[in-house]
Structures are given as structure tokens and as C-alpha cells.
Write the C-alpha cells for this entry.
Amino acid sequence: MIDQNSKTLLEVRDLHAKVSDVEILKGVNLTVKCGEIHAIMGLNGSGKSTFAKVLAGHPGYQVTAGSVSFDNQDLLSLEPEVRSRNGIFLAFQYPIEIPGVANSQFLRLAYNTNQLSRGKEELDPLEFDDFVREKMQLLEMNVDFLDRSVNEGFSGGEKKRNEILQMALLEPKLAILDETDSGLDIDALRIVASGVNKLTNKDNAIILVTHYQRLLDYIVPDYVHIMESGRIIKTSGKDLAKELEVHGYDWIKADQLAKSTESSI
Amino acid sequence: MTLMTLSNNDYINSLVERWGSYSNSTNVAWLNQLRSEALHCVNKLRMPTTHMEAWRFTDLSSLAKLSFPEALLFPRDQLSELARFFLSESESEYRLVFIDGHYVAELSQIDSSEKIIQGNLSSLILSHNQIISSHLGKLAEFQDDLFTALNTAFIQDCACVILPRNVSIARPIHLLFISTQSETTSYPRCLVVAESGSHATIIEDYVATNENVYVTHSVAEFFLADSAKINHYRIQRDSNQAFHIANHVVSLSASSYYAGVNITFGAQISRFSQRIELGGEGAECSIEGFTLITGQQLADTHTFIDHMKPQGKSRQIHKCIADGSAHGVFNGAVMVRPHAQQTDSAQMSRSLLLTDKARIDAKPQLEIFADNVKCSHGATVGQLNKEEIFYLRSRGISESVARNLLTYAFGGEVIEHIAVPSLKAQLEETVLLRTQIA
């Protein structure tokens, strides 16, 4: 929901980033206020997943220019774990499998680490078990997933639900969902989207990174941004996604081309 | 080179000199003969050197200087201190205890009420002469194996477990070998005969009271008759100064099943050689190894799975974590003989190097002479997975905690499969302790 009086949560200015000497982000600008849902759309290779990972602090990406302020702090100077504790959450496009680490153990460790950093009480295994089961109901997840190794042997849909479960446990200020809709059938998509919707409120914000309009039928964005060649080239309301669905990405490119041709004339 | 050979043979010679005091210690003719034959081989064989393929990475020249005598008897008034090595299910465990190689009846726990025959060799050799004489020394060939020959020449005490036909034992059988004395050599020996349809869990456990220097030359022979099933946990938690050279041979008859977990934590130099003969149709084995070493430790695991008959199945996973300047060696051979059609074999070796100085040499070896088989193998050597670390960090978990958790998880997977709760808990604690870097 857009409220001009909300405080600014994320301020990205002219962000440039590269991975092994290839520049992927070439000047991203984005402002996210509390309560807002932003969708970032774009073709494969446009830089949208890179943008998500850079915000989360993936060590494989090097920021070469620009600034990111999150909750009035310089985000780029913080380690990934500190970003998480400060309220950034990245739902991975491809959640990592960790054989040998029980999902329940992982979830509790993550939860307690964040609780501790916020000066709140940790939960012992029994208390946590009750707590996490309640959250799992939100995502219609089978409790068997607690005893299995983190994401190991989970289907694509189960992995994505496990990501949103972590979001529910950690209660981030800013959740970045990277292609959370990919690999989900329509039922799973509905469940995941409804879970996300229940977690949104006026004090947090969401960035949805997606290729398709489909997810946006279930999680309705306040803004839709189109990313192309490492930049956000167009920003509009939720209808932009629908137009994109009808006309395709070429339409945006043509539109942009026309504009740049106009301006150069 | 000449000098080296000399000192190597000095090692054998000085051990053999003590053999004389043993030669008359038994009045069982076949055993005397077995020991003499073994001694004969000892005298012919030479210490392995790194010029030999099977010992390429395992340099025994430091062992060659340590021709320690056998231990004295442990003071009887201090026996109670050793109860800490019992499992916490001690009430329910069968237990045969050997201190520095010598059987100790006072600490052992044998229940003759159940249909299981177990005890030290000397107590069974007359009553069960036929079954023992037809098995002891029959699997662990010593003609070309110096250390097996040494052990056989020195057989005196031996843990014997005989499971009669169709007997199933729920209580774990704990074969506990405790080292207490510095600068000693011991020759632990185990014989397990599982008659058809029998089932038991055997824990072969090597522990130490102190960080002493000592040498263990151990040999174990397991015979599984048709449809027998043995779970075997072999735990080598010797002192980090010790030398541990072991040979384990398993013979599997039709439809029998051997499930082994082999854990290596201790010894400055250890060598575990294992040969599993799938000698009956439909025999199956599952072996899991986990080595966790640090400092200057070297741990060498050589396994040989021999598919001799059709429809055999083998599963093997070997894991090694090397920290400090430690060196892990894994050589896993799988043989599928011409008649062993429809063999199903899978082997995996995974190693984790925690430092730049740690080293792993892993070598899978498949030799397949049958055409209708399914065999796979794989090996990975690496550092902790960076994506896994980032995933944990992105959830607020610090990098050091993430690394510790992943290192623990790597080994925990094998320990997870140990079905004796107190043993599993002990091992988990050791792994946790050794993988936690502040």
C-alpha cells in the first residue's frame, strides 16, 4: 500500500556491481517505503537476480559504485548475517540443499540468532517446535519437513515454501523474493502467495523479483519496475505488468527506443 | 636405502625375539602350528615401504623405530577406573574387555543364559575347538601381509563371538580394547562366526587412557553364513600419538548382510585395511567410513569389496575431514568377478579439507569382469561449499557458526547411522568438539 507519509526503508542510488569482471548492474535506482510491494520484472540476464543477491550481500558480487541505505544505515558495509539481523531477507531462487543439517535445527538456529540480536528470548527445541508448526500451517507444509535435511530432496515447490517459512520466522523489514513463483504449480503458487500476503503489513516491504506476471495476480504490487541491461528502465503501477504480459518485453524496448530516439532528435 | 631396510627388519626382529616366550603358552596343536606358520612368514616378509603401491602414502619409517614389548598386566586395583569406557547401556551390553591386549575377565560381562557363545579364546578353545579351528586364521591371510602375520604369530587372547543358527541378539556386543601403557605393542584379535540366519550388533572399540605412544596390530575375521546379518561399528579412538595397523576381513555367504561403520579419530599413523568377500549369491554389504583427523595425523583406509557371486549388492561411502596438516588416504577397490552377474555396486568418497596444509588422496578402483552389472563410483575433495555458507549467513548465522555447522554436518551423516544411542551420542560429541573452531 502506498502511503506518502511512510518512512523510506530502502534507498538504492546508482548501484553498479560486477561478477568476475563482468558488469551486471549499471546504475540501479530504487526507493522502497514501508508498507510497499515492489515488483521487479525483466528478461533473463537483465540483472534482477543479481540485484537481489547484492542486497543480501552475496560475496560473489562486487559493488563498484553507488550506495544503498537501509533503515538509515549504509547496507553495503554490512556482512550478510548483519543485514539479515537488521531485517533484510532474501528468498532464494534456488534454495541451497544442506545434507546432514536437520531443517528444524537450521530454522531454530536462524530464529534464535535473530531473536538474540533483537534482544528477545530464544526458544528451546520444544517451544520452537510448537512455534514453527504453527507457522507451517500458514504454508500448508507437512511437519515431516522439520526432520529432513535442509531442502535436501525437497521438490521445487517444497523448497519455496521452506523459504517463505523462514520469512515467517524471521519477520524481516524487507523481504526480497527472487523468482519465488518459478517451479510452482498453481496450487502451490496460491498457497505461497497467500502466506506472503499474511506476512505483509504497514511496517514492512517486499520486493518481488519475477519473470512472469502470474505471481502478481496473487500478490498485488504497488509498483512495477522493468529491468533491462542492469538498469531499471521503466516504473509504473500494477497495470504495467498486465501490459507486459500482453505485449511482451519487446514492447518496452521499442517504447524505450522510441523515447531515446525522440530525445536524441 | 640399505640402512632403511636394516632398521625395518630390526623392528620385526626385535618383536620376534619375544615370540619365544609365547611359543609354549598353548597346548593346542593346531594353534601352535598356525602361529609357527605365521612366524615363518614374519621372518620372510619385510616392512612395507612407500615404494609399494599399497603403502605409497603411508610412511612407516617412524614405526620401525618403535619395537615396543608387550604390556605388563594392568594393576587389578585400578580396574574400576576403566568402567568409564563402558557404554551407558552397560547393563544391557555384552562386553569383552582387553587391556593392552590382555583379556580382563573382571571387566567383561558375559551372559551364558542366552544362546550366544562368547569369550576369550582360551576359555572356548577346548569346548568349541572344532568351530574355532576351522575359522581362526582362515580369512585373514598372512602369507603376503607382514602385520597380519605378526598378529597371527602373537595370537594369545582373542575375542570370540559365535552366534548359533537363527539366534538374534538385540543387546550390543562390545569388544573393548583399552590402551593404558606407553611404549607397548598389542595384538588384538577378533573372531566372529555368525551361523545361518543369526543376527547381532558388534562394537569393536579402541580407546586409550592417556596420550601415550603405543602400537596396535589388530586383526578381525567375520564369517557370515547364509542369511546371517551383522551390524559392526568399528571405532578407532586411540591416542593421537599411537600407531594403529588393522586388518579386517569379512566373508559373506548367500543372502547374508554385513553393515559396517568405521570411525577413525585417533593415532598419529593409522592404517585400516578391509576386505569383504561376497562369496554367496545375493550377499550384501553396506560400509560407511568416517575419518576425522588433525595436526600431523595420517589415516589410511584401504578397502576391497570382492563380488564373487551373482546378485551381490554393495554400498560404500567414505568421508574424511582433514584439519591442520593431517593427511587422509582412501583407496577403495571394487572387484566384480566374471560370474558375478547382476552385481549392484555403488561407492562414494567425499573429503573435506579445512586448511591449505591438509591433504587427501582418494582413489576409487573398479575392476569389472562381468557384463551385466550396475556399478557407480564417485569422489569429491573440497572445501566447504561457499553457497551453503552464504545461505546460512543470509539467515543471520555468523560465518564461523555456519562453517562449524557445515563441518559437523559433513561427518554427522555417517554417525547418524549408528543405532546404539549412547555410542552415537559420544561420537557426536567428539565430532562437535573437534569441528568447532571459535
In short: Confidence is low (pLDDT under 50) at residues 1-7 of chain B. Residues 2-384 of chain B form one domain.
